[in-house]
Amino acid sequence: MSAPLLYESHCHTPLCKHAVGLPVEYAAEALARNLKGIIFTCHCPLPDIAPNFTRMDPEQYEDYVALVGEAQDKFAGRLDVRLGLESDYYPGVEPWLEKLHARHRLHHILGSVHMQVPEYKARFFRGDYFEYQQLYFQHLAEAAETGLYDTLAHPDLVKNESPADWDFARIRPYIERALDRIAKTGVAMELNTSGVQKAISEINPSPAMLGMMRERGIPVVLGADAHTPRRVSDGYVSAMRTLQSVGYTEINFFLDRKRQTVPITAALASLKS
Question: Residue 55 — very low, low, confident or very high, per pLDDT cuts 50/70/90?
């Protein structure tokens, strides 16, 4: 096992109301897995949504910063602990996020389209799941074009909303158009290993979509989307081998919102199971 190289770039805190474990527990797991660091990206607060069942409330944002700060202090000199955020995208939310992102120094901002949450679904779902899938990928491309985000999270998450209505061949042209737009922005996309736990048990995005991303030169960031400490860096080895199978040779993470790149071969050698 070589020196630590990788970061967990997608993990949560109890403030999102559907994760367990304090940041210090996630950081301890990252250290045990021989990661170089961990970037917390809990679900951002949003305006005009109350009560919040899937994210921190606006008044809890400073609590979130403080929780991550405690882990930074405890692991100083042993593990690089950083503050990030997973921020939802939907049309009209941009002014809120611009102000939120400016309040603290963030190292990695994930952009997510959470089409499964009631507020988004009430606004955009019209009873046709194929149209809903199309809108999801349109919003994903729009998110990249805002300039608000470093990485687009779990970028085919919509397939789990109604698995019976997911037909990759049918939706593929819409994915291609979205990826063409995303590639022009330089925004990275995530390989999220938590997809194996969802209704369609495969990584997000699927290997087929990863191949399409590779054709367009879109960089990939690895994230486990950990909602419990034990899931920190879960599935990384398998995920990186899948990346190699579609032609990727490098993996990425963000520090100070600047993309860092390491060879997959070196990253694989650095991990401890």
Answer: very high
> Using 50, 70 and 90 to split pLDDT, how confident is the model at 206?
very high
Using alpha carbons only, give the angle 257, 263, 264 rounded to the nearest 5 degrees: 105
User: What backbone torsions phi and psi does residue 90 show, to the nearest 5 degrees?
Assistant: -155, 155
Query: Strands (DSSP E) along the chain, which ranges?
Result: 7-8, 37-40, 80-83, 85-88, 109-112, 151-152, 188-192, 220-223, 250-255, 258-263
CA distances from 102 to 10, 44, 95 (A): 20, 13, 11
In contact, 110 and 10? CB cutoff 8 Å: yes
The SS3 assignment for 112 reads strand
Name the band, by pLDDT with cuts 50, 70 and 90, for residue 155. Answer: very high
Torsion of CA 31, 34, 35, 38, to 10 degrees: -10
DSSP per-residue codes, 210-269: HHHHHHTT--EEEE--BSSGGGTTTTHHHHHHHHHHTT--EEEEEETTEEEEEEHHHHHH
Neighbours of 220 (CB within 10 A): 23
> What is the dotted CATH code of the domain comprising 7-270?
3.20.20.140
Residues 6+ apart with CB under 8 A from 53: 17, 18
In this predicted structure, what is the pLDDT of residue 51?
67
pTM across the whole model: 0.97
